[in-house]
Amino acid sequence: MGILSQARVTRMLKAAPINIENIRAIVCTASADNACAMDFVKNYVPLLAHGNAHVDIKTQQNTSSSHDSCSVKLIKLVVNRRSPINPLSLLPIGKKPKDVKNNRRITNDPTLKNNPVYGRLAFCISMTAMLFIVFIAELVFNKLTFNGRCLSNVLYPQVKPSNATGPYMVEVGYGACEYNLQTDARKIFFVGTATDDKGWPRSMVQDFRNVGSRGYIDGPNGRIFEHIGGLNTNKIRTYNEHFRLFWSIFLHGSWKHLIMNILGQLQSLWIIEPARFQYF
């Protein structure tokens, strides 16, 4: 074979996938023809791998010849994980511009040509989106049910018939809630301390058992979790609503609770999913 030129070695490397067998074959061919080509391969491979691969090539002296020749003594290819151990390390906070550029270069690889891991974080992204949607649904439920009081175990007085012979109108929707709770719907909020209430009006409830419920600055009124969650275990036992045990896993009492769970989920799935779920 003739002497390998740098252009020829470049074409060989670009045509072959980056794996240890192809690198071994190309480097051995280069070392058998020209020591300069061998040095070129040694310097070129780490650049081709965009920082994800490390090739350790050692040379030895050929004692049977009058000149030194390069041969492969040891080739070791180490492919780092696609995702860093800490996902927050990708944020350009307290980093030099050079470090940020290198991180973007390594992770900006949608086809994963330089990494054998094929995870796309589909489960992590979908679970995170679902938890946010469920929390928003909690706030909407809190608003539409007047902090959970329109959907309750409180029995309101029945309408007593009068001497009037004509029909009477029964309010539905907000009208019934406003009348029974003596509250304006415009004063009901999604989240925050404004969701505080003192329970049901004393004048509207027979056999008075008034139970107020507190609203916190970072979440809806806690009463709603008796209706859509598992806070009231009597409903699980009495009505056999065992789905509440599972559904409650996705509910959060406040946005602080939600953010903490999301960060923990991102930290774990960022590490586990790319290495385990290879078909997403």
From TrEMBL:
What EC number(s) is this enzyme filed under? 3.4.21.105
Q: Which GO terms describe its biological process?
A: proteolysis
| Keyword Protease tagged | yes
Q: What is its main location?
A: membrane
- Which chemical reaction does it catalyze? Cleaves type-1 transmembrane domains using a catalytic dyad composed of serine and histidine that are contributed by different transmembrane domains
Q: How does it sit in the membrane?
A: Multi-pass membrane protein
As for subcellular location, the record says: Membrane
**Which InterPro entries does the UniProt record give?**
Peptidase_S54_rhomboid-like, Rhomboid-like_sf
| The name this protein goes by in its record | rhomboid protease
Upper lineage is: Eukaryota, Sar, Alveolata, Apicomplexa, Aconoidasida
